[in-house]
Amino acid sequence: MIPVVIPPDLWEGDAEGAVSAWLFAEGDAVRAGDLIAEVMVEKTSYDVTAPADGMLQIRIPAEIPFKRGAIIAAIG
């Protein structure tokens, strides 16, 4: 399994983020570089791409808050 990690330096401060949209469903095949999710932090949107080819396993559903450095999914 390859984790999909929110980089700890993606935003500053203690604000929490949330996935505003998963662009693939649980179990879908993804390719490295595919845009798989959009993350929202204080009215700013960030794109999250797949780090490798494989099947998407969502760990944090949309709209659930998380901190920087969180593992939001895995690719296996």
Could you explain the architecture of this structure?
There is one protein chain. The protein is mainly beta and 76 residues long. The protein has one domain (2-75): OB fold (Dihydrolipoamide Acetyltransferase, E2P). Helix content is 0%, strand content 45%. The protein is built from no helices and 7 strands. The protein has strands spanning 2-5, 18-22, 29-30, 35-41, 44-49, 54-58, 71-75. Strands 1-7-6-3 form a 4-stranded antiparallel sheet, with no helix packed on it. A hairpin with a 2-residue loop joins strand 4 (35-41) and strand 5.
Largest sheet: 4 strands, antiparallel
Strand order of the largest sheet: 1-7-6-3
Count of spatially separate domains: 1
Give me the Rg, rounded.
11 Å
What's the helix count? Answer: 0
Order of helices and strands: EEEEEEE
Brief sketch in words of this structure:
This protein is an all-beta fold and 76 residues long.
Name its key features.
76 residues, mainly beta, OB fold (Dihydrolipoamide Acetyltransferase, E2P), single chain, three-stranded antiparallel beta sheet
Helix and strand arrangement:
Blueprint: E1 2-5, E2 18-22, E3 29-30, E4 35-41, E5 44-49, E6 54-58, E7 71-75
